[in-house]
Amino acid sequence: MTNRHLISGKEAKVDGKPAYSSAVVAGNTIFLAGAVSGRDAAGNVIGRGDIEAQTVAVFESLEETLASAGATFADLVKITVFATKLEYRAKIGEVRARYIAEPPPASTFVVVTSLADPDFLVEIEGIAVTGRASRA
What we know:
The chain is an alpha+beta fold. It is 21% helix and 30% strand.
């Protein structure tokens, strides 16, 4: 069996326990669960109706999860973006450029009918690999 461990963060909870892991680390590979903007202390979706605010919250969450696993965005090799409208692509790309340096990781953009909560506009998952000699 592969040496792996789970990274828990702000993910949804069921009966006080995480319903999933924010990331699973297997060897030097980190599999990031889909991140959404989350909820504030009152239970409201962060950035409700605002694709830029939600995308910033998603990248902040991903950055925190990567750091928990000893990685950064420089270790990201693949991301998948799920958005509820094609028109969000440009704004998501603008925010992404603030967090992910060139050259970008392999990337997929998917338009979906809905996410787990209809107020979530974007969800991003990824794969990172630590200890690589170079990105080229």
